[in-house]
Amino acid sequence: MTGELSGYDAVAEARSVRNVLDIHWSRICSRLQAEVGEVEYRTWLKQISIGPVDGDEITLNLPTRFLRDWVRTQYGDRLSALWNAELPSIRRVELQVGRPDPVVEPEGASGDEAGSADVAPVAGTVDERVAEARSELSRHDLAAPLDPRFTFDTFVVGKPNEFAYACARRVAERPSSPGFNPLFLYGGVGLGKTHLMHAIGSELTRGGKVSVAYMSAEKFMYRFIAAIRSQSTMEFKEQLRSVDVLMIDDLQFLIGKDNTQEEFFHTFNALVDAGRQIVVSADKSPSDLSGLEDRLRTRLGCGMVADIHATTFELRISILESKAAASGVPVPAKVLEFLAHKITSNVRELEGALNRLIAHANLFGRPVTLEATQDVLHDILKAHDRRVTIEEIQRKVAEHWNIRLTDMSSARRARAVARPRQVAMYLAKQLTSRSLPEIGRKFGNRDHTTVMHAVARVTELMERDSAFAEDVELLRRMLES
Ligand code: ADP
Ligand code: MG
């Protein structure tokens, strides 16, 4: 470091450092703009002003806490990476609420802390911002485009999703029927919620008479904020309230976003009262979405609530068969079975694995074999190697039905003991890569045919008895997490 600088030199030095930073920053901005698009860039990133560098860290300022949090979660990593690429000495980006650095911009900005509301006022000359935001809004359609690949035809139906599928079809055929409005679809990640929503949308817009608006809850919030900023909330409301079908995906995103929730609630009511259809998806059922306002939760549960369960082995096989057939690349049944056994988390990952196999086969002109599969998917398979042990399974199942752990290997055949034991065998088959004889040995040296029988019996029972199926699914989820 240099010695003590006079006041004047300090300012001059700060200025020249700042000039250099400004050049880097403007380059980063152009890249960001190209990457995220004009609207996102203007709404979020353009509000950033650069602050001082301290060691390997640069501070970036945003006018409100809301903006800061948003930029941090959405773009934090990207900003660090871009700064690091520009200036390797910078390794970290600190985002904070604050004004631009006063040394360089003595006029400052009127950025005041806006508290925790999700819709916060933004500093700057109001007229400019309003004009800017308005022209952005008008340039962009209200809704996100529908993915033409997500249709009812390409959706493979099986036990875990047949109810949700039937409801979706029904809404697509006769929107706004009593009892089906709203349609609330829920289930874990990658199980087909978005696919079904797009399928409804595509089906309904095919005739050209029905107007459908599909958007993620996140997008809904973003549009809403942009409307507030451009003082065009009336237009926003009118636009939304003029559609025949409104679909909001991943509603759980609105948890904690009280203002946006409130707006959604009013839109929701206005549409339903006007006989329009609403379709909503979330990762949990309305009653389990804690953090959502009670009145909204109540209304969401008023129509049809349909859940998509975790996939079964059978469904995974059907999906793989259908996607393999569509690709035109022959994939041996053994490979499909292998994948369906190994990748149980969700359809998206299953699809990703198959796509990679197919791309590989096309690229190298080699047939898909089990060996090639293990090789090509090495990393994915490793990540999915479930480390749950048979002992763990036995313990959890015994706890669940309140039996003694020793009964997992005892010879007792009373139903109260035999049934949980069968469930544990079934889960051992599903969740570990152990063979039937290996599993049998862990259950008091039973024969592999006993395990086979247990798997078949539990599968059959799950189909007949939904309460039992739920128990087993719950155990599976607990063991998998
Ligand atoms: P979610 O919205 O529930 O997270 P998606 O609808 O995005 O899940 O589904 C993830 C991927 O899996 C998509 O590519 C989708 O087409 C596919 N997918 C999910 N379920 C099925 C199914 N039953 N049949 C065919 N493809 C499916
Ligand atoms: Mg989705």
From TrEMBL:
Official protein name in the record: Chromosomal replication initiator protein DnaA
Region described as Domain III, AAA+ region: spans on this chain: 145-361
InterPro entries according to UniProt: AAA+_ATPase, Chromosome_initiator_DnaA, Chromosome_initiator_DnaA-like, Chromosome_initiator_DnaA_CS, DnaA_C, DnaA_dom, DnaA_N_dom, DnaA_N_sf
Residue span, AAA+ ATPase domain: 179-382
Domain notes: Domain I is involved in oligomerization and binding regulators, domain II is flexibile and of varying length in different bacteria, domain III forms the AAA+ region, while domain IV binds dsDNA.
Region (Domain I, interacts with DnaA modulators) residue spans: 1-117
Subunit details: Oligomerizes as a right-handed, spiral filament on DNA at oriC.
One annotated GO molecular function: DNA replication origin binding
Residue span(s) of domain Chromosomal replication initiator DnaA C-terminal: 389-458
CDD domains: AAA, Bac_DnaA_C
